[in-house]
Fold this protein.
Amino acid sequence: MSVNNELTKAISAVKELIVKKNGEINIIVLTGSGISKGSGIPTFRGADGLWKNYNAMDLATPQAFRKDPNLVWEWYSWRMGIILDKNPNAAHYAVSQLQKAGLVKWIITQNVDSLHDRAGSTNLLEVHGNIFRAKCIQCDFKTMLTIPPKAPPMCECGGMLRPDVVWFGERLNAELLYKAYDLLKTECDVLLVIGTSGIVYPVADMPREAKDNGAIIIEFNLEKTPISSLADFVILGKSEELLPEFVDKLIKNDKEG
Ligand code: BJW
Ligand code: ZN
């Protein structure tokens, strides 16, 4: 039994919309590192976030990689090791369950950890890339890495490989970004925003796009963020606890309704 009033209200609102639209609603899920916190993967900001001990500008920019590729690879290898040791949590599985129930069509994630994929989700837009993919800085070669490299891996062309993630000052993949905006404009009745601080652009702007096009915005986070002021419901707490409850009740309601 939920004691979270906001959660109960959000479920009722989505349930009403399901009835109004004869069961045909599209939920889009937008996630950030907070959804993986329950798996034991650190977030970026906050008291125990990665940026507490490491400077973003020394590690997550193209300039940093040019200056010291060994250092950058060392940091990414360390993070790959942490992720490989962890598993999707109840929030990732809840999202996947909602997708299997047909309510969620697409997931837009800023996370590079593959945990949505490992939880069985499909139609995943990894707009900040994937930590397990590397790309050549000289040619178009890309490859998946199964073990964290001990030194910067090299391409057959002689160029160095880099993590295929989006660093500060770099453009997001245009196709993925276009697809994400198109979905938010045309196929989003409800947007679930889970575990993101909402300060990194252009993703931070996506909830506004959905809202402008009539979507109900439901935010799940430990605390309020810049997205909270435009959200219809702000559900405070751990996503690994709240999402399973939200999804259970919604799916039950959907079947009953
Ligand atoms: C829980 C929880 C639990 C915890 N349950 N919740 C417009 C205005 C101002 C600045 C800009 C702008 N446009 C562009 C910029 C610059 C920059 C930017 O946004 N800077 C801001 C910081 C101000 N953006 C860029 O540079 C982007 N590129 C770009 O816009 O290019 C345009 C361009 C134009 C012309 C020429 C060239 C370019 C690229 C951004 C790339 C971000 N990259 C990173 C690293 C990815 C690779 C890697 O993993 O190493 O992406 S940075 C980092 O931040 C990572 C994340 O995906 C991203 C977002 O972080 P996230 O996921 O929100 O994590 P946190 O830690 O911030 O928050 C965690 C949240 O979870 C918190 O709210 C907690 O409360 C919550 N939480 N536990 C629920 N259990
Ligand atoms: Zn190459």
